[in-house]
Automatic annotation (TrEMBL):
Molecular function per GO: 3-dehydroquinate dehydratase activity
Protein name: 3-dehydroquinate dehydratase
Stated role: Catalyzes a trans-dehydration via an enolate intermediate.
Family statement drawn from the similarity comment of this UniProt entry: Belongs to the type-II 3-dehydroquinase family.
CDD domains according to UniProt: DHQase_II (cd00466)
Organism annotation: Leifsonia aquatica (Corynebacterium aquaticum)
Length: 145
């Protein structure tokens, strides 16, 4: 393992200015620096897209390469069965996908309480801000995938 994919869905490119009371004031660039400092031996490949097809393509690449994935799918978490199927491709091939959330979806609006990707993900970490990503990375480093 040399690369960890850190994939982010819609609106997460607006971190730092988007609802700072919910998501904090740090940006995705800040997150990338923190993760790289936590794991200097790894290549942290942090990506964000507002295009669902692009995120699905990145997951297909992970299924083919075996790269572990830290995934914050944003709003797609709650309804994208296409994304669910792409996550399942990764995990059914023996890969790791850790679903992360900056906020705690269960403490927010009811529509956020359901995740269609949880059942096919390796695990879920939510509600700890950027620490959710860092905990996911720590798991991947300890388990080699």
């Amino acid at each position: 393992m040399s690369t960890v994919l850190v994939l982010n869905g819609p609106n997460l490119g607006r971190l730092g200015t988007r609802e700072p009371d919910v998501y904090g004031s740090q940006t995705l660039d800040d997150l990338g620096r923190q993760l790289q400092e936590d794991a200097p031996e790894l290549r942290i490949d942090l990506r964000q897209t507002d295009a669902e097809a692009e995120l699905i393509g990145w997951l297909h690449d992970a299924a083919d390469s075996g790269a572990p994935v830290i995934l914050n799918a944003g709003a797609w978490t709650h309804y994208s069965y296409a994304l669910r199927d792409a996550v399942s491709l990764v995990t059914s091939a023996g890969g790791t996908v850790i679903e992360v959330h900056i906020s705690n979806p269960h403490a927010r609006e009811e529509f956020r309480h359901t995740s269609v990707i949880t059942a096919v993900s390796t695990g879920v970490i939510a509600g700890f801000g950027f620490e959710s990503y860092r905990l996911a990375l720590a798991y991947i480093r300890r388990n080699g995938r």
